[in-house]
Amino acid sequence: MDGLIFGVCSLATAIGAAICFRYAYRLRDQPTYRVARWSRALAVVVCFIGSLTAVPVVADVFNRATGVGNGAKLVAHLCAVLFCACLQIMIVDWMYEKPYVSSGVWARVVLVASVVTALTFQFRTANDPGLPFTTDSAHNLPIVAYLLTYLGFLAIAGLEISVLSAGMAVHSWRDRQMAAVGLTLVALGGASCVAYSISKGGYLIAVQVSHPWALGTEQAVSSPLAGVGVLFVVIGLCVTIAGSRRAVVRR
């Protein structure tokens, strides 16, 4: 199932990246919301890389080529973190008054750099080529710690993205309905990210307290949530481009 879900996500994000980069490049000389445009484009690119490396066949090829067991999983997870960070920076540029954009952006950059550093260190400590970095290894404490760090960031970032995007959608609905529709989809994608984190994180915690539910149930729920979240966000970002021709958001 993962192959189908993330294969579709890879195709969607490849198309979305082309659309977003073309738009950002076309308006490269326009200073208004420049950070948001390039952050949106970069978000879709890293999401494409993450989705592609999450496809099992591609992951196997990557791991054999690099000689790093679970290397594709680390790349996919770091891309997910960067994807959320780029979306947060995009929203900062849309919502903050100009004097505060820089500080808002740097706060997110410092946070994501800390998370990436922590995940990389935890990965090096916990990596065992014989154990996957998934809920299948829920009894391995170093892997659980790594996954909870990853899922914790996704939950917080997804919540911020969902709440702020929903607020902008409500604000924009009367005069910029196309942009509002796109922001609503982004909000739904952020909510799916939170649900995904709760599903996986909840299972990992349940295993530690000896009250887990079926692993198959967790996997059947989590993978579709991840796929739906990616598709909602990427489609929503492309829709905001159509709406942004009439100004995406009023400061």
Distance between the termini: 42 Å
Strand content is under 5%
Which secondary-structure class do the elements indicate? mainly alpha
CATH class: Mainly Alpha
**Quick one: biggest sheet?**
none
CATH architecture descriptor text:
Up-down Bundle
Instruction: Tally the beta strands.
Output: 0
**How many discrete structural domains?**
1
**Cα gyration radius (Å):** 18 Å
Q: Indicate the mean pLDDT.
A: 92
Unreliable stretches = 247-251
What is the helix tally?
A: 8
Give the CATH topology. Rhopdopsin 7-helix transmembrane proteins
Shape: globular
What level of helicity do the residues show?
over 70%
- Assembly state: single chain
* Secondary-structure element order, N to C: HHHHHHHH
Write the layout of secondary structure elements.
Blueprint lengths: L1 H25 L7 H21 L1 H11 L4 H25 L2 H29 L14 H32 L4 H32 L6 H30 L7
Quick recap:
The protein has 251 residues and is mainly alpha-helical. Mean pLDDT is 92; it is low at 247-251.
What does this protein look like?
It is a single chain. The protein has 251 residues and is an all-alpha fold. It has one domain (2-244): Rhopdopsin 7-helix transmembrane proteins. It has eight helices and no strands. The chain has helices at 2-26, 34-54, 56-66, 71-95, 98-126, 141-172, 177-208, 215-244. The protein is globular, with a radius of gyration of 18 Å. The N and C termini lie far apart (42 Å). Residues 247-251 have low confidence and may be disordered. The chain crosses the membrane at residues 6-25, 41-62, 74-96, 105-123, 143-166, 178-199, 219-242.
